[in-house]
Write a structure and sequence with these properties.
With about 375 residues, the protein is an all-alpha fold. It is built from 16 helices and no strands. Keywords: Membrane, Transmembrane, Transmembrane helix.
Length: about 375
């Protein structure tokens, strides 16, 4: 195997590991801190648990990072293998376009399915369906970023990125909403452009029937910037051999610190807010994304610790499948069916922690089985 192929393989493992780390907190990892608090009574675990809950409105917790990090990583994958196809004859580009459109439609459809998991199923009445979704936003951000990578120069992509962030800030803060005012970002978002778009243009229902959907129309635009920042990171790693791999990891880490500083400075005039997906929120999440990518790149790729990251790798390799299953499969019922006797046998303070480990174990066993048989389901 050539050195080039080896590097590509390592980078894929690094991306899978970070993607798996991201997904780990959705699968049940977020319950560990609450269980540890029950076991030890240490107040520090309550502080950690607070980071596994979404911000109520303005502000940021690490749980807010899960969604944008996934989008960022989709951009990293594109940046590792950037390709311009606009010079090709249309007959050669057509299969690529068809595949991209299929991925867009499949992810949006899976998002609708996820939204209505654990209920009575997707309603037959379109007006009762929630069309906006996490997977839908991932699909849109990836698709637009892919079109830019395939058809424009890197310079154009950077101008687009900056234009999105500044344009979104200007739109939300300085342009009056029809029948309202400019810059009303008060709790709930009823007076925002986001609510206006979702009320007038978004079909079906919004999340919890709120005035605006956290995965609604307008807030999907700045999410494209998360993917484009990922493209920058991927392109930089691709050129690591030229400047030194450890230097690359260090620069990625430093870039994350700079992005964090920019995000929190911007927060003074444009608050960090996940539901609105503000430009300052983009910068804060991109900052942490760069930092985590640098750490995982150093540990998994440069220190060759793929085995240590194995549990995260198997999650990341089938991330879409296990995410969808988290809405459609009653994993708690399965874990209690398998490990219920063990959980009941341990002392009461230990039971919540054992229950969390059991919940994670049944999912990881399925993912391990898929990975060992090279069943890697992607969209």
């Amino acid at each position: 195997m050539s050195d080039t192929n080896k590097k590509a393989k390592k980078r894929l493992a690094s991306l899978d590991a970070l993607r798996g780390f991201d997904m780990f907190w959705i699968l049940g990892g977020e319950k560990i801190f609450a269980a540890l608090f029950v076991l030890t009574g240490w107040a520090g675990w309550k502080v950690a648990e607070a980071q596994t809950l979404h911000s109520q409105w303005h502000g940021f917790t690490f749980y807010d990072l899960i969604f944008p990090l996934f989008i960022f990583l989709s951009g990293v994958a594109m940046g590792l293998a950037p390709k311009r196809i606009d010079h090709l004859p249309f007959v050669e580009r057509k299969p690529i376009y068809i595949k991209a459109f299929k991925r867009l439609l499949l992810l949006c459809s899976f998002g609708v399915l996820y939204n209505h998991g654990w209920g009575t199923g997707v309603p037959l009445n379109p007006e009762e369906i929630r069309f906006a979704s996490v997977l839908g936003r991932i699909a849109i951000a990836w698709f637009v970023a892919a079109m830019l990578v395939w058809h424009t120069s890197f310079r154009t992509q950077m101008f687009t990125l900056v234009g999105i962030l500044i344009g979104y800030w200007v739109w939300l803060c300085f342009i009056p909403v029809p029948g309202g005012v400019a810059g009303d970002l008060s709790s709930g978002g009823a007076g925002t452009w986001n609510a206006w778009f979702d009320t007038n243009l978004l079909p079906g229902i919004t999340y919890q029937n709120k005035p605006m959907d956290p995965e609604g129309i307008l807030s999907s635009v700045p999410a494209i910037a998360n993917a484009l920042f990922g493209v920058i990171a991927g392109r930089y790693i691709k050129q690591a051999q030229e400047r030194g791999e450890w230097k690359t990891a260090g620069i990625l880490f430093a870039a994350g610190l700079v992005a964090l500083a920019c995000g929190w400075l911007w927060d003074m005039v444009f608050p960090v807010n996940k539901d609105l997906w503000t430009s300052s929120f983009v910068m804060v999440t991109v900052g942490w994304s760069f930092i985590l990518l640098a750490v995982f790149y150093a540990v998994v790729d440069l220190l060759n610790q793929q085995r240590a990251a194995y549990l995260f790798v198997i999650i990341g390799a089938n991330s879409i499948v296990i995410y969808l299953a988290s809405s459609l499969v009653n994993w708690e019922f399965v874990s209690k069916s398998v490990f219920g006797g063990v959980i009941a046998a341990v002392p009461a303070p230990w039971q919540p922690l054992f229950a969390v480990f059991a919940l994670l174990a049944v999912q990881l066993l399925v993912l391990h089985w898929l990975y060992k048989r090279k069943i890697l389901i992607s969209v």
